[in-house]
Amino acid sequence: MFSILIHALLIIGAICMAGPFLWMMATSLKDNTQAFSDPLSFLPNPIMWQNYPNSLQAMSFGQAYFNSFYIAVIVVVCELVTTSMAGYAFARIRFPGRNIVFVLFLATLMIPFQLTIIPMFIIMQKLNWLDTHLALIVPAALFDAFGVFLMRQFIMGIPKELEEAAIVDGANRWTLYWRIILPLLKPPMAALGIFTFLGQWNSFFMPLIMLNSSDLYTVPLLLNQFREQYTSQWGLMMAGSMIAVLPVLLIYILGQRQIIQGIALTGLKS
């Protein structure tokens, strides 16, 4: 009986979570008359397939897709390198104040991002990086407290005997990281890479502050412009939203196993 109740609650929760997405998908195939019909109908009749090509023609989705994709890929690659190196340093290298520095580093997770946007904007202005993609790539690629925590916790669970054996064979610190630790970090790196890619692809606030030129816009910014231009064309708006969310949905479906494995293997060791 308890198992049936749990499954029923999970099914209800799944329906509540999937409901808005399914409604968006259905509305993307409707015209305005169907979208506001009384009573509301979930299934479109007739199906307006032309909403998708019309939305693609209305906005330069190709350029926005390229901008979002290459920014996300660069940030993912750089962040995986920096977080794994920092995580290794905090887990294995003993230096004065290591634990204090790590705690202070994690404390930054409690600072709302909105509080840092003004000093970040001033820094980007001083560097002449406003209205460039560098303002989106460099800060995200060089600092991720959650990623460092994830890597550090995983490395703490790796037996030290592996490194001690390599040291006996003459390995230095860089060799230990590159040849021993890094190959073992595939599960947390896969999880962090997926989290980072999804976060960068969906990022709206930072690009909104840093970018002005429309040819530099990412997908979320383009969708915002689309909403302003076609405020009453709900079918086109939902079609554009579906086009924007498909890559994220595909990556999540393909990478959900890596996400679960990376988090499960990391644990919460101190």
UniProtKB/TrEMBL annotation:
Which Gene3D superfamilies does this one have? MetI-like
Give the ABC transmembrane type-1 domain ranges.
65-255
Q: Per the record, GO CC terms?
A: plasma membrane
Q: What Pfam families has UniProt attached to this entry?
A: BPD_transp_1
Principal localisation: membrane
Domain of life of the native organism: Bacteria
Record carries keyword Transmembrane helix: yes
Q: Which UniProt keywords are listed?
A: Cell membrane, Membrane, Transmembrane, Transmembrane helix, Transport
Q: Does the keyword Transport apply?
A: yes
Give membrane topology per the record.
Multi-pass membrane protein
Q: Where are the transmembrane segments?
A: 69-91, 100-122, 134-155, 176-198, 235-255
What this protein is called in its record is Carbohydrate ABC transporter permease
Q: Which organism is it from?
A: Ktedonosporobacter rubrisoli
